Amino acid sequence: MSEAPSRRRPGPEQKRALRGAARFYAVQALFQMEASDVPIGTILTEFEAHRIGAETESEHWAEADRNYFRRLIETAVERQAKIDQMTDRALVAKWPIDRIDPTLRALFRAAGAEMVGAQTPARVIISQFVEIAGAFFPEGREAGFVNAVLDHMAREARPEDF
After folding, report:
1. HEC string of the chain?
2. Domain coordinates of the chain in residue numbers?
3. What is the CATH number of domain 12-161?
4. How many angstroms separate the Cα of 128 from the Cα of each of 4, 20, 96, 124?
5. Per-residue model confidence as pLDDT tens digits over 8-41
6. What is the pTM for the complete model shown?
7. Per residue in 45-54, pLDDT tens?
């Protein structure tokens, strides 16, 4: 009789990839919550059941660290006022958070959630979310903007990292 394969913990590279996917899905979920006014529980269930790691004949959705995804979403929702205030302080006066692109707003909320709720170094958070911005905005103009806003937010949320 053969033994069942043992479950191994993911290595550092796989863990980074799973967290990166969780961040990407968090931006999508936060965007969807705002665009559709769907409650957090419904969004979490939908993403966990139908997107994260899902496969169809035409699509394959990457696997993600589901716990990290859930934590980012929950923190973003619970601490949205604080995160939005940090974002507003990082934006120029003529462009408050409610005037920026909704995808960027979702990205800033996900990144802000990680800054206020996780132990990930600020520079890693900035780098990861600038990369995600590039996926949503391939023209590349937004990456510099995202980098500047997140740097300002990180210096406020995590001054000890600088």
Report:
1. CCCCCCCCCCCHHHHHHHHHHHHHHHHHHHHHHHHHCCCHHHHHHHHHHHCCCCECCCCECCCCCHHHHHHHHHHHHHCHHHHHHHHHHHCCCCCCHHHCCHHHHHHHHHHHHHHHHCCCCHHHHHHHHHHHHHHHCCCCHHHHHHHHHHHHHHHHHCHHHC
2. 12-161
3. 1.10.940.10
4. 36, 7, 23, 6
5. 677 889 999 999 999 999 999 999 999 998 899 9
6. 0.89
7. 999 999 999 9
